[in-house]
C-alpha cells in the first residue's frame, strides 16, 4: 500500500477472529483495518476487511459498518467537496452456496441507502468473456447482482475500458483436472463517478495468492493548473490596472508583468508534470514487479 500509494484496499477470505483487526492496528500504525469475521467460523470461513492508508486518506472521519458479517462491509469516506463516498466491499458466496441470498427480500444489501463503489470477490461473472471454460452461474445470484447494480447505476469500469480484452483474476489449481479461470474479482462504480476514474488494472500481487488484484484510481478532475491560471491571471489583471495610474519604467511595464506571468505558469506546470511523472514511474515499477510473479496464460487448443 505504501509503494503503490493505495488509499483503500478490500480483502476477502481474511479468516480473522473477533479482535484480530485490533492486533493488526496496533502493529501497523500507518493503516486503519476493519475486519468483519464470519459469525460462526471466523478463522476458517469467509471474512472481509477494509484497509485504509492513513497517509493518503481522510481516515479520521471514515466509518465502517458490517452489513452482512463476514460477507459485506460498507465504508464511508469524506470527499474534498464535503460529500461522502460509500464503498461496499464484499465476499460473495459461491452461486450454489446455502449462504447465497439470491432473490431473498430480507437480504440486508437491499436496504442500503446509497453505494458509490462496489468491489470484491463476486463469485459470479456477467459476461461469457470472463470465464473459461464457459459455465452458467446461479440464476438467482445473477438476478440479484443485476438488480443491485441497476438500483445504484453501477458499471464495470474495467470491462468498459477493455471491451474485448480477455483477462482473469482467479484460477483453480486442482490436480488431474482442467483448471478454470474467471474474472470474479471486480470493481463497479456509479456512472457519475466513471469519468473520475483511470488506471484500471489487473495485476499479480507480490504476496502469493490464487487471485489477482483489480485496481483503479478514483480522483476528481485535476484542476490545479486551471485554478492556478485563474488565480495568477487575477493577480496580473490587478497589477495591470494599478500600472495604468503610474509612470512606465523599464522595471515596471506591461511587458515585464506579462513575461513574469508566463514564467510563473510554466514553472507551475513543470512542477505538476514532474509529480505526475513520478507517480507514473512508481506504477510502472509496481506493474513490472507484479509481472515477474505472474504466469502467462495460454489459451487451450480447440478440441474436435
Automatic annotation (TrEMBL):
Domain Endonuclease/exonuclease/phosphatase: 8-211
UniProt xrefs under Pfam families: Exo_endo_phos (PF03372)
GO molecular function: endonuclease activity; exonuclease activity
InterPro entries: Endo/exonu/phosph_ase_sf, Endo/exonuclease/phosphatase
Top-level taxon of the source organism: Eukaryota
Keywords: Endonuclease, Exonuclease, Hydrolase, Nuclease
Name of the featured protein: Endonuclease/exonuclease/phosphatase
Biological source species: Ephemerocybe angulata
